Each structure stands twice: as C-alpha cells, then as structure tokens.
Amino acid sequence: MSMTLSEDGPWVDDAAGLLVRPYSVTNGRTRPTEPLDLLSMVRATGRVPAHMEPEHHEALKLCEPPASVSEVAAKLRQPVVVAKVLLSDLIGWNAVSTRAPAVDIPDRSILEALLNGLRSI
Amino acid sequence: MGSAAYNSGPAPNSGQIPQAVKILIAGGFAVGKTTLVNSVSEIEPLTTEENITVASVGTDNLTGVERKTTTTVALDFGRLSFPRENLVLYLFGTPGQDRYWFMWDELSKGSLGAVVMVDTRRLEDSFAAIEFFSHRGIRYLVAVNQFAGGFHYEPEEVRDALTIEPHVPIVLCDARDPRSATNVLVRLIEYVIASYTSQSTLASARI
C-alpha cells in the first residue's frame, strides 16, 4: 500500500467516535474470510504487520488481552461484520489467533468449571 | 492513535486462549435484564450492532431483482472471566421486541442456558421468552425480580400464572444485588447440569 497513514491517523471525534462509514473501513467488504462467531475469542500474537490500516491497528490493540469478536466490535463502535472483516485480515497476517466458542453444548467439564468459577465469586 | 503504539513487551501469546461461553438473559421489556447483566459483569456492559440481511422469499431471476432488507439489531452484553478455569462467560440480553425473534434463534445457538426475568407487575411480558426456550429445548430458569412496589407472588403462583413446567426452577432475586444476581447464574448452571445428568445426555468430555 503506497498511502501514508501516519500523517492523518484515524479520523476521530470525541463525541462521535470514528468518523468513518462502517464499510469504508473494510473497503466495502462485507464478507469475513474467516468463520468467526460473535463469541470467537481473538488474541494478538505479538506480530504487528507493516502497512496496516489504522482500523487494523485499532482492532489489533483490542485483542490484547484476549477478547470476543463482539467486544472488539463494540469497542470499535462498528457493526459486528466490520469487526469480523478486520479480524479476518489480522488472522490472515498471523497477527491474531482465534479460538472458536464451545459448540458441543452441553459439555460437562465446561459446565462444572463454570459452576466452580461462579461459586467462588 | 500514535503509530508507535506497540512495544516489544511481554509476548501476549502465552498460554491458551480462553474459551467463551454464553448465557442468555431474556424477558419482557424493562424487567431488569440490563440491571442483572450490570450487577454481575466485570466490565461496563457493551453494546454492539449486528447487521442482518434478510433476503426476500422466492427471489427469482426473471426480474433480476433481489429484494433484501437489512435490519440492525443492538445486542447488550456483559462479561465475567474465570482465569483459573480459562473460561469467559458472556451474558447476552435478548433484544426485547418480538420482531427480533430470528435473532434469538441465532443467539441461542451454543448457549449454556437462559435466564428469563419476570417482573411481577407484568408477568405476561415474559411469557413469550418462556415459550421460546421451552419449545427449543433450551434449559432456562425463571428469575422473579423483586421490585419495590411489585406484587408479592409465591414462586408457585408465578409458575401457575405462566404455565411453567414443573422441573423449571423459579428463583426470587434482586437484579441490582451482585450476590443475588450471581446466585441466579449458579442456580441456572446447577439446573443445567442436573437436567442433563438425569437424562444422561451430557457429552462425556472426559479424556
């Protein structure tokens, strides 16, 4: 990418947040390339690819410590699909790794671990 | 945001990524869903928007017109982390309006169970949620939120009024009180474990 982003940085307004239309941050892409769920957990691997868009930087920063896709979307103040597209890029660049939510419900070991956790609050 | 926001501090990629699980918090409008999520969440509850494209039925290629409607559904959620168990619990409030039921379906996939909040001043408002979960075989319990000024009902009166199946627990709670709200979640998970154990349908995850 030849565009220099450092001059401008993301266009931010304190009250309104990012002054960017949702799909312009993804270049109009609305289909994530990774099978991400609202509850997929994402975490920065420590690798920071060069030439990322500001929105990628923003998303990557939200992945340390681990967070769910829904959290990243909420904090980016973007629809979930936008977060999924950005995170898919980051996963493709090995900047983010992901863990799918538990799908094998019910799973006794998860339920019991959760119960232990809740009881110890 | 500065471009030098990253330093080469401790690698954040040690250990396993936690596993996310979810519980749904349902019920009618203003029954205390958000209050309950607030009480137990370790983070300021967040809102995210899910854009859902609903294609029209029978799109044909004669006209070449594809009619699609995009609906935005706001989802509120809170989080509770259990580092020792390497689990993160997300509590999702179901969108209140009935027309977003398709979203409930989407949300209820993979959920451990649901809490249906009931306000005794408007018992009937939570009927739709009870019906939804019982038809879909999703384990749920009913949490009667004790509002000041609300009518006092015995749990069994609530059960009769809302025709709740006998095995479904009914718990009295104060959604504003973190202890009481946490207890609702404990009771739900206990019930989920017990109900699957008695049916012996629990996936044996022991290796």
In words, what does this structure look like?
The complex is a heterodimer of chains A (121) and B (207). Chain A is an alpha+beta fold and 121 residues long. Chain A has helices at 54-61, 69-76, 80-92, 108-119, and strands spanning 12-13, 17-18, 41-44, 67-68, 96-99. Chain A has 4 helices and 5 strands. In chain A, the strands form 2 sheets. Chain A has a 3-stranded antiparallel β-sheet with strand order 4-3-5. In chain A, strand 1 and strand 2 form a beta hairpin. Chain B is an alpha/beta fold and 207 residues long. Helices cover 27% and strands 28% of the residues of chain B. A 7-stranded mixed β-sheet of chain B has the order 2-3-4-1-5-6-7, sandwiched between helices. In chain B, strand 3 (68-82) and strand 4 (87-93) form a beta hairpin. The radius of gyration of chain B is 20 Å and the shape is globular. The chains are: A alpha+beta (121), B alpha/beta (207). Chains A and B meet through strand 3, helix 1, helix 2, strand 5 and helix 4 of A and strand 1, strand 2, strand 3, strand 4 and helix 5 of B.
The total strand number of chain A stands at 5
Distance between the termini of chain B: 46 Å
Beta percentage of chain B is 25-35%
How are strands sequenced across the largest beta sheet of chain B? 2-3-4-1-5-6-7
Tell me roughly what share of residues is in helical segments of chain A. Answer: 25-40%
Helical fraction of chain B equals: 25-40%
pLDDT averaged over residues of chain A: 84
Which structural class best describes the helix and strand composition of chain B?
alpha/beta
* Dominant shape of chain B: globular
Q: Tell me the overall shape of chain A.
A: elongated
Low-confidence stretches of chain B: 1-13, 56-60, 201-207
The helix-and-strand class of chain A reads alpha+beta
Strand order of the largest sheet of chain A: 4-3-5
The whole-angstrom Rg of chain A is 16 Å
Low-confidence stretches of chain A: 1-9
Total count of helical runs of at least 4 residues of chain B: 5
Q: How would a textbook summarize the main sheet of chain B?
A: 7 strands, mixed
Rounded to an integer, what's the Rg of chain B over CA atoms? 20 Å
The percentage of residues in β strands of chain A lies in: 5-15%
